[in-house]
C-alpha cells in the first residue's frame, strides 16, 4: 500500500506539471496562472460554504440521534473535492469536480463506503466514540 502512495506522490505532480505546460502553451502563461488562482479560490469557497453546510447536517443528524451515514460521506466528498481544487493543476480539478457535482457524487460515496466497510471488517479501521 505504501508503494502506491509513493507512486501517487511522484506521478500526480509530474502529470499536473505536464498539464499546466500544455494549457500554458494553448492559453499563455498569464491566463493559465490566473485560471489556476481562480480555481484555488473556488476550492476555498466551496470548502468554506458547502463543507460547513455538510458538517452542520452531520451534527444535526447526530443531535437528533440519527446515524449521519451518507451525510458524512457527502461531507467527505465535498472536503476532498475542495482540497483537490486547491492543488494547482487541471487533472486533480477534474477529479474534484466529479466529487463535487451532485449527480456524480453517489458513485464516489459508494466507493468510499465500500472502502471503509472493507477496512472495518479487516480490523484496520476502528470507530471510537464518547460514551
UniProtKB/TrEMBL annotation:
InterPro entries, per the entry: FxsA (IPR007313)
Keyword line: Membrane, Transmembrane, Transmembrane helix
Transmembrane segments: 29-50
Coiled coil: none
Name this protein carries in UniProt: FxsA family protein
Amino acid at each position: 500500500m505504501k508503494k502506491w502512495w509513493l507512486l501517487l506522490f511522484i506521478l500526480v505532480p509530474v502529470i499536473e506539471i505536464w498539464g499546466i505546460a500544455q494549457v500554458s502553451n494553448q492559453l499563455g502563461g498569464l491566463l493559465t496562472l490566473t485560471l489556476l488562482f481562480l480555481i484555488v479560490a473556488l476550492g476555498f469557497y466551496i470548502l468554506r460554504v458547502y463543507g460547513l453546510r455538510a458538517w452542520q447536517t452531520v451534527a444535526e443528524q447526530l443531535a437528533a440521534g440519527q446515524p449521519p451515514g451518507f451525510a458524512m460521506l457527502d461531507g467527505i466528498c465535498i472536503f476532498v473535492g475542495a482540497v483537490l481544487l486547491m492543488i494547482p493543476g487541471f487533472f486533480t480539478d477534474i477529479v474534484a469536480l466529479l466529487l463535487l457535482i451532485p449527480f456524480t457524487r453517489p458513485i464516489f460515496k459508494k466507493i468510499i463506503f465500500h472502502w471503509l466497510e472493507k477496512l472495518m471488517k479487516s480490523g484496520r479501521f476502528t470507530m471510537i466514540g464518547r460514551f
